[in-house]
TrEMBL record:
Belongs to the cytochrome P450 family. The lineage of its organism: Bacteria, Bacillati, Cyanobacteriota, Cyanophyceae, Nostocales. This is Cytochrome P450. GO terms for molecular function: heme binding; iron ion binding; monooxygenase activity; oxidoreductase activity, acting on paired donors, with incorporation or reduction of molecular oxygen. Transmembrane segments: none annotated. Pfam families: p450. Keywords: Heme, Iron, Metal-binding, Monooxygenase, Oxidoreductase. PROSITE patterns: CYTOCHROME_P450. The keyword RNA-binding does not apply. The keyword Metal-binding applies.
Length: 399
């Protein structure tokens, strides 16, 4: 017997039963197509993210061609300095006072285009635009630039998911990176000379121990923020609506008590994480459940399998926003007891922004769309690394 192929068509269609087989019967195996060891139990995946024996240097090959050198591929002091500069810049602008109203305005504007129509394809008309728009707004880039920003982000995302190495996809990703860089260069120069009240300006002036980011680093970071904060939140939001519409009684409870939106979002991240796996590189031999991973090996930590490990969660395959074994109060911090935002030193830095975005959008959508139902059959998921919905056709009663 062999472990299921995590890149097969069968897997793409329906990975969760296969994850169960992997987690129970093949807690550690070597996957030839990706040249990686695969771990899937919660305690092993968490360890791969938190133990310094696992490096993020693997990401040089994966991310650097399109983003340039960014924190995702750094370790140790270099990573800490770079990450802290961004956290400082993120913390220095006023999310609550200045940006929450703009985020709400973005959501309202998109919603107004379909709210009286009684039906919508939510991915195309809302989720695939809204989080990118939020990043654009926060960085301080003009609204009219959105169409080409979106195109560049799609090309770069396709490049990162191009496991079959399709040459056209590779070329489009690299070309979009070039155009994105050329677009940002004069804007960064301008903001360095005349600082404005936005994140890009904050990144231009942020410094730790006298170290400032170079122009190239600022450009790479801006592109990374679009990549890291766009597609992830897009997929999470659509998956949450899918999960709630399937579980109607929980949808009714969320409609009646909006403090439950945060629970619905957290349970969605556990049950259907938009990033299904992360990779690492071992710096030494590491003993895991099922054997030893040799030094210098690539490792895949299957987040989506770990998030349904019965050793961690009761009835893990049930979507239940009231579950007691998932702590909403720490779900968006480094102490989270799910792995959808990774863990350890590279734990996602956009969790609070993602939470605010999702809460704002969900409340507005629920206020305007009663009796939500799928317009046709159950929406299909797709994707190995990033996983979401191809589309989400909903019919509803306009309010
Ligand atoms: C539901 C939404 C989101 C999900 C599921 C998500 C998921 C993740 C995951 C799994 C990682 C860990 C990567 C690793 O360890 O290699 C990560 C890191 C990161 N995320 Fe998010 N993310 C989300 C939203 C955001 C947003 C809105 C931003 C924008 C501010 C963002 C910015 C980042 C950055 C910059 C990193 C790299 C951190 C580091 O390497 O130290 N993310 N995210």
């Amino acid at each position: 017997m062999q472990a299921p192929n995590i890149l097969s068509a069968e897997f793409d269609k329906s990975p969760y039963q296969l994850f169960e087989n992997i987690r129970e019967n093949y807690p550690l195996f070597f996957h030839e197509a990706t040249n990686s060891y695969v771990v899937s139990r919660y305690e092993d995946v968490e360890r791969a993210f938190k133990d310094p024996a696992f490096s993020s240097r693997h990401a040089e090959a994966q991310f650097e061609p399109v983003y340039g050198r960014t924190m995702v591929q750094m370790d140790g002091r270099e990573h800490a300095t770079n990450r802290n500069l961004v956290i400082q810049a993120l913390g220095s602008y006023k999310l609550n006072e200045k940006f929450l109203p703009l985020i709400e305005e973005n959501a309202r504007e998109l919603l107004s285009k379909f709210s009286s129509r009684g039906e919508v394809e939510l991915v195309e008309e809302f989720t695939s635009i809204y989080p990118l728009n939020v990043i654009r707004t926060i960085l301080g880039l003009p609204k009219e630039d959105m169409p080409f920003l979106k195109k560049w982000c799609i090309d770069i995302s396709n490049f990162l998911s191009n496991l079959s190495q399709n040459p056209q996809v590779t070329a489009a990703g690299l070309q979009s990176r070039k155009e994105f860089q050329a677009y940002l260069a004069p804007i960064i120069k301008r903001k360095q000379q005349n600082s404005e009240d936005d994140l890009l300006s904050s990144l231009c002036i942020a410094e730790i121990d006298g170290i400032k980011l170079t122009d190239d680093e600022i450009t790479s970071l801006a592109m990374l923020l679009f990549g890291a904060g766009g597609e992830t939140t897009d997929k999470a939001l659509a998956l949450m609506f899918r999960n709630l519409i399937v579980h109607r009684e929980q949808l009714q409870q969320v409609i009646a008590d909006r403090s439950l939106v945060e629970r619905a979002f957290t349970e969605t991240l556990r049950y259907s994480p938009p990033i299904q796996w992360l990779m690492r590189l071992t710096l030494e031999d590491v003993k895991m459940t099922g054997g030893t991973i040799p030094a210098n090996s690539m490792v895949i930590g299957l987040i989506a399998a770990a998030n349904r490990d019965p050793r961690k969660y009761s009835e893990p395959d049930n979507f239940n926003i009231f579950r007691h074994d998932l702590d909403v109060n720490r779900a968006f911090s480094g102490a989270a007891n799910h792995l959808a935002f990774g863990g350890g030193k590279h734990f996602c830095i956009g969790t609070k922004l993602a939470r605010e975005e999702v809460i704002i959008a969900t409340n507005l959508l629920l206020n305007s769309m009663e009796n939500m139902q799928f317009n046709d059959k159950l929406p299909e998921e797709y994707g190995f690394f990033a996983r979401g919905l191809k589309n989400l056709h909903i019919k509803f009663t306009p309010v």
